[in-house]
Amino acid sequence: MDIRIPSLLRIKPDTLFKLGKYLRKHGFDRIALCYGEGIEELVGRSIRISRDSSEITVVRQEVVHSNDVTDIMGVAFHLPRGTQAVVAVGGGVAVDAGKYIGFLNQLPVVAVPTAISNDGFASPGASLRVEGQRISAKAAIPFGVVIDTTVIAACPPRFTLSGIGDLISKYSAIADWKLSYHATGEAINDFSAMIALQSVENLVNHPDKSIEDLGFLQLVCGALVMSGVSMEVAGSSRPASGSEHLISHAYDRLAARPRMHGEQVGVATIATTWLQDNPQRDTVLRVLEQTTFLSAIRADPLDRATFLAAIAAAPAVKPGYHTVLSEPGAVERLQAHIAADPLWQDLLA
Amino acid sequence: MDIRIPSLLRIKPDTLFKLGKYLRKHGFDRIALCYGEGIEELVGRSIRISRDSSEITVVRQEVVHSNDVTDIMGVAFHLPRGTQAVVAVGGGVAVDAGKYIGFLNQLPVVAVPTAISNDGFASPGASLRVEGQRISAKAAIPFGVVIDTTVIAACPPRFTLSGIGDLISKYSAIADWKLSYHATGEAINDFSAMIALQSVENLVNHPDKSIEDLGFLQLVCGALVMSGVSMEVAGSSRPASGSEHLISHAYDRLAARPRMHGEQVGVATIATTWLQDNPQRDTVLRVLEQTTFLSAIRADPLDRATFLAAIAAAPAVKPGYHTVLSEPGAVERLQAHIAADPLWQDLLA
Amino acid sequence: MDIRIPSLLRIKPDTLFKLGKYLRKHGFDRIALCYGEGIEELVGRSIRISRDSSEITVVRQEVVHSNDVTDIMGVAFHLPRGTQAVVAVGGGVAVDAGKYIGFLNQLPVVAVPTAISNDGFASPGASLRVEGQRISAKAAIPFGVVIDTTVIAACPPRFTLSGIGDLISKYSAIADWKLSYHATGEAINDFSAMIALQSVENLVNHPDKSIEDLGFLQLVCGALVMSGVSMEVAGSSRPASGSEHLISHAYDRLAARPRMHGEQVGVATIATTWLQDNPQRDTVLRVLEQTTFLSAIRADPLDRATFLAAIAAAPAVKPGYHTVLSEPGAVERLQAHIAADPLWQDLLA
Amino acid sequence: MDIRIPSLLRIKPDTLFKLGKYLRKHGFDRIALCYGEGIEELVGRSIRISRDSSEITVVRQEVVHSNDVTDIMGVAFHLPRGTQAVVAVGGGVAVDAGKYIGFLNQLPVVAVPTAISNDGFASPGASLRVEGQRISAKAAIPFGVVIDTTVIAACPPRFTLSGIGDLISKYSAIADWKLSYHATGEAINDFSAMIALQSVENLVNHPDKSIEDLGFLQLVCGALVMSGVSMEVAGSSRPASGSEHLISHAYDRLAARPRMHGEQVGVATIATTWLQDNPQRDTVLRVLEQTTFLSAIRADPLDRATFLAAIAAAPAVKPGYHTVLSEPGAVERLQAHIAADPLWQDLLA
């Protein structure tokens, strides 16, 4: 089985100053550069210095304001002849747009996430908007991922905590995959499951779980990359997305004030691992506590009614996608548990 | 970058009883079956039951007595037309032979190691003998790896301890790779290094490091598979083989009584990580202690004079392969350290 | 060098009645079906019969009215989960749309052209409209090409003659490629050039060049497929598109009444092969005469002033794309020749 | 469907003088060089000049005396570290050996045939000897094929005539493939069949069929390359080997004095196309006559008794391989025809 992995991977402090060197080493000297909103102000200087010293020509530079597919095509179909790669610097929107611009031109993409709020930057898909609606489009896994951990460490904590919530959800997602295998015969890919879990377990076992620690952040980034690779191996988002993601998607639609993807997913994982009777549930709770994820949620709880409604709505989000919530009575059992268990008192309000 | 990974991966108790089912699921019903010496007596019954219940036809069955390339070709060039896969059950010799038979016929290989004394079973190469000399031949990463952890648990402890020694050597090998990058400009593949280290770190962080624990064994097996994949990603054995492997190869040639590959490599890693001033050296020692690797060595130490000579001979084993031993005075410093440090008193005799 | 070729290829009479059988044989039983305008009326009955007898489920059926990218995305991003392939039946617009719907979903595409007016159906790209402008987008070479030569034989002759014009232009395109190699060092791919020319030469050497002859049509279709493959091998349209295509593109923009692509390209090839002093020019003229291409043009000549203007405008169509027209004075020499040479009297008016 | 094709292809006069340039262009500057017996004397000077002017280092040079697999491995497993490609210059034996040395090391091979007596030089296999027996081993299609047509033109005519015999046999082989499809359901690959036939048809239609004509030789070489590619596409030798090859293999075993492979195959094709009632039989006879193939055979006929015995023995050469000879009574009918038809009077003696 042949899979595609990033050819260029650098996760450490001050990589932005070497971006030009990395590009040249891989044969790219004419690039299209996409910045997220406000990102050039943040990190543009490092990138300009690096670009100039490595003599990289930016044949087109663009600030990405949205992941709307019409905007993306406006850029994608007018790249100058001879563009060799697309470099996307910023948060989720900029990286998704850059990935899709690259995909439409069959050009390699170098993702340079400046925040790690979810595992999208290394996945083989792109989250887009088509006529106002969010869709998950197929794309290619990035050619390169370059992360400057000092930039990540300087992000508001919510971003990184959201990324940790997205990572910890693998325990729930893979348990759902196994349930589906037994209930529906859906094929499971052990290699995909193994690398998805291995990367999270590294995190879990790391002695110092401070989101300001560069070593810990390096592990978090590496695990998010491996999450993307596990989806590439599986040929779907199964290893990274189960019932907890369905709850989060439903919450997105129902909530007056949706939260960051990984925040919702992390909270939902506490719920779904209970329902799964998941042996890793204590680990989930421990890691969310130690990283201050839970205290951040307690400081600004999710909306209780919306969360309960999201649980009820979740099974219909992806028809035919078997999870623990597909089992008879599962929704009601989970809702009753949440009402009764003191843990949930201050996570929801 | 496209890499090849095993399409079939099963590591858990009692997989031998399901081997036929796995083969059929992947479209193989006509196979060549290679057993190592004495292996059919050990596990043949499970495999026959599984083969029969899944209606797999064994078009050729062979007991592998050696990894001599002439013997291997005698089998390889006479496989019946219509053979769909080669299944190799046994230790290193049987799996190497099976891998090469498959490679010469461009057929998928399913490796079923019955002992895990090194990381060869999932690597993209094969250790062969050509005119009496050991060589590392190119081959393909196996299509499948199936490991029955109850079989592994029943092995003599030395085998599994040897596998752990081979795994822990990644810390030394990757440090050498980085040294070579700085000293010679040799390209380093961060993705390869990441997956090689991640799998070892899982092991290191596992609370219960008993080689009788099926959960721990599953981690060890998974890490050995990832070691093979890391070599596939790197396109060489760099992530899995540094100065400590050179010492072991030299010891093989010099010793009256060579030990298992992973035993030698594990001991050598204690030496090379000292020379590298490797921050993971304490981890190496702790894991080797906790798994009883060190007590097994103490019960039957390596030969002191041979080990010191092997250090001196190591740099010449692979000319042009930069490691910490390539640095001026490195051999002498290491020899002096070993003579002086009490740790080495009972590892060598 | 790895290239992609169609896995399914059937060019003969009455293949439409076997389309369902072919699909099932390749593992597709849930397809999206795109018809060109008016095509279902023409061939829908054969396809329905075949679909039903092979129990193929059409999960989505669509009539394609345009190759506008917004329309295409409206379909592409809403294919039902579980769609296994996109089958596109019709002329250039339907096949281009189908190819792009497949590309955006990374699904295999089966092209079923009902007319062969150009070589686009088997190429790795798609001609689209973006905000009213025609662009050449990257896509993938079709998984399958199924052509029913009885359907092709029943087309109005202009379509097939246009296809022949597009084919004969290879002589001009490849001569331009070689010129560019010598003038600019642009890499030439001999394998690509060889298969592009071989397929045309088969046509040229066929004794009976009647566009009603099923055997001859089979050769024409095969040559158009090989033209697509030659572009895949080259990684660009170089083997199939030189100065004669630039003239045709310019004519498209300048003409009050543009003709079919291959008609323009065929006429332009007569001009550019003169300028190239191309040894195959007599062959070009002979084949265009024997197939009745030239008599069809004489019956309805191109516009003289527009054609001369198109020659002048051609070099600017693709900046940096070296052809015989890039040489100093080439445009003027060609214009003067056309004014003077009696051959052109009745091809232009 | 992904297939591998030669990345480097040059067929024209005086390519030997540019071999070094071609190698460097593809990134090879450290090569292993295999000459056939007597070949260095023949063309070594051109190659040395080219090698030196392009600064190519020959890290190992070898004269190939046989295609015995033990000899080949003696070279293959001792190539110097850092060898980038294997270049094989000579006839069938040297090219087969070079291809296999490359395959065992997973290195690219550049085939430089100095005679074109069969289609082996561009095929994805290698003809070897294992313990004295001839076997067809799997290998890889060459990375490059470089043919100097002035060298080919200077060969004794028998070599080129043999190549033409091998080419013309495609008509027989593909008819057998179709027979097998109808009789046994064996899958047929239309793309493979198309490119196999297209290349032969170019030859057939070429006005001047003189084996001294450089243009005609270029076509013959191109067609032999496409024959290799057609086997790569099919994943087997089906498009290039049918009943006529079985007869030739049987003749090899039975004859006191076997002839060149293509000579035997060409004569056998006359026989098998009669049995197939093959519509191309007249074409076969015409081409063999025009190229002087038949007059060369008449000057030195095959042995009648051996040829008749070979027909009888052919069906057992590859058990389970359906051809026209598998049909009941086919052998007897063909033998009776040969006895009676005057055409055979002077081809056999």
Automatic annotation (TrEMBL), chains A, B, C, D:
It holds the Pfam family Fe-ADH_2. InterPro entries: G1PDH, Glycerol_DH. Glycerol binds at residues 119, 166, 245, 261. Transmembrane segments: none annotated. Binds 1 zinc ion per subunit. Its cofactor is Zn(2+). Keywords: Cytoplasm, Lipid biosynthesis, Lipid metabolism, Metal-binding, NAD, NADP, Oxidoreductase, Phospholipid biosynthesis, Phospholipid metabolism, Zinc. NAD(+) binds at residues 92-96, 114-117, 123. One of its GO terms (molecular function) is metal ion binding. GO terms for biological process: phospholipid biosynthetic process. PANTHER family: GLYCEROL DEHYDROGENASE, GLYCEROL DEHYDROGENASE 1. This is 3-dehydroquinate synthase. The lineage of its organism: Bacteria, Bacillati, Actinomycetota, Actinomycetes, Nakamurellales.
